[in-house]
Amino acid sequence: MVLEAIKKRQSVRSYREKEIPEEVLQQILEAGRLAPSASNQQGWEFIVVKEESLRKKLVPACKNQKFVGEAPVVIAGCATNLDHIMSNGEHSYPIDLAIALDHMSLEAASLGLGTCWIGAFYQDQVKEILGVPEDVRVVALMPVGYPKELGSKTGRKPLSEIVCYNKYRT
């Protein structure tokens, strides 16, 4: 079942003018809430942008990606704990937010909705538009909606090219 959602998911950049029922949106958000995080910190907040005027303001802040304003909902994934460093020396928040947003993306796909990961945006502009405090970082934006059209699926490398066993391939 999960693998089917993974196979179905693709980046959607064209959305129908159809509202997402509240119970469907809550189900998508619940998938993010249940995501694992480093030390179970759950150092995130998700801003659900439904207001059309705000979604339109996000377009120039997202390098003029017009579909950001066309989706009925945009979810901003925000990191509230920027200080946690994992034992490997890396900050945990980019990974934590990626996992949570991917959980949402897969749940959306399983429900017939499309999403697109937006990492190309101006942090300061998005924070101003959405009223995000200085000590919080917007990690990604994710438009959500019913796809108007689906592009062709992008290819994936075969397992033989990306998997090695026991030691790194040389």
From TrEMBL:
Q: Where is the Putative nitroreductase TM1586 domain?
A: 101-167
State the protein's name: Nitroreductase
**Entries under PANTHER family matching the protein:** NAD(P)H NITROREDUCTASE YDGI-RELATED, NADH DEHYDROGENASE_NAD(P)H NITROREDUCTASE XCC3605-RELATED
Residue ranges constituting the Nitroreductase domain according to the UniProt record: 6-65
Task: Recite the UniProt keywords alphabetically.
Answer: Oxidoreductase
Q: Which family does it belong to?
A: Belongs to the nitroreductase family.
- Quote the InterPro entries the UniProt record gives: Nitroreductase (IPR029479), Nitroreductase-like (IPR000415), TM1586_NiRdase (IPR029478)
One GO molecular-function entry: oxidoreductase activity
Q: Name one Pfam family in it.
A: TM1586_NiRdase
